Amino acid sequence: MSIPAEDFTDANGTIADRIFDRLRHAIVVGEIAPGSKISEPVLAARYGISRGPLREAIRRLESSSLVDRKPNVGARVITLTSEQLLEIYAIREALEGMAARLAAEKMPDAGIADLRRLLDQHRNEVAQEAWQAYFQEEGDLDFHFRIVQGSGNRRLANILCNDLYHLARMYRCQFGMRSDRARDALKEHELIVDAISDRDGELAEWLMRRHIRISRRATERRLAEMQRNS
Amino acid sequence: MSIPAEDFTDANGTIADRIFDRLRHAIVVGEIAPGSKISEPVLAARYGISRGPLREAIRRLESSSLVDRKPNVGARVITLTSEQLLEIYAIREALEGMAARLAAEKMPDAGIADLRRLLDQHRNEVAQEAWQAYFQEEGDLDFHFRIVQGSGNRRLANILCNDLYHLARMYRCQFGMRSDRARDALKEHELIVDAISDRDGELAEWLMRRHIRISRRATERRLAEMQRNS
DNA sequence: CAAGACAACATTGTCGACAATATATTCTTG
DNA sequence: CAAGAATATATTGTCGACAATGTTGTCTTG
Does this entry carry the keyword Nucleotidyltransferase (chains A, B) (predicted)? Predict the structure, then answer.
């Protein structure tokens, strides 16, 4: 929810920047189907802009590895394979584990307090069962997002927030991932925040890595299930 | 040396792609000084191209975080601070540690044999003391590059090879990093290859992380020294 | 003389048109 | 009728020109 890339306020920045955000969002939520062609003429017409800014946006989408471009042929939205998804989980485990450790060492107390408030909110939502899976997932990303920010490593935050989180979100939209793991995940989140609050970096890293590993296994099970049903 | 991005054969691909490679190389080796402005008109004139492809290349340089761009103002080459450099080392430690573990599990025997040949070559160069620091450093990157490739995680390889290695190289050129650590580094490389060859992922990860940590400490010492002399 | 406003300039952002390349269709030929 | 070549079409790549924004230098004025 508070991920900057999500709230593309159409007022600021250049057309290329705005179209990049819009396209990225459209791709991530599946509005533009995976594997479909990114045609410059039709998109330029649809959004009422010229091809110039559009091309720059597409080049950036390529850098974010959301589209696959071939010279003189064009760009297509990537189709996330299960292998690629597991690759992302592996990277997140390494990177976010490190982020949790750094956050335990360097995150300001105010940030930890914010984190606790966020968890309180999640706890209410889960308890009332009034939450929708969508918001639950958003909340999960929000949690991870804040910890990464708290690590203080700007480049780490860039890698995760500009690329990997969008890909993770894309997968969730693509496979209609509904989280029946909300309660467990919340508990894991709470333990992580406790460790960070105790400034126990080693434990925070271990908990975060396990959290992501569990999440990956749940995904693997789901993928195997889908494989079986198809 | 065998890093794909380095040999920009001017024959294939579009102008935008070629100019991206050329600019990246020019920035990395310091041909375009850190902090200097990336002026579209002057670069278009210098390379004899139009501004269109150039702009796309600049957008991609921005995605690689080699330039810093402000809307309606322009782009400037980033200036690597020592903090940013240490951030990169931290990320490399996490990511390449993982890569070494995966390589131990999945790298084909042929790849390991290639790795050994590479180390033989390095050993000769070091023994003859006929090596120049430049090639030594290139060889180091080549070693890391191959292990990352051997991990089989394509996205991991992209993150490291498309962004972080270029930044690391940029730093080395920027600070005129001469390696008096070649002998030790070679020994560490050999241990890592031994672990991979033994399919001991845990050890390979540990050795790789330590290798990068030692390298980071050497860099920190050098930075402190430079700080003192200035 | 200093500080702020104004104007001239340069640079970036955007657009439409043309050239080069790839894909799809049609035609020929065994 | 099938397979391949040649053409036709559409899309991408590139370019030069115009509009919008930032910057810089100058001029006025307290």
Answer: no
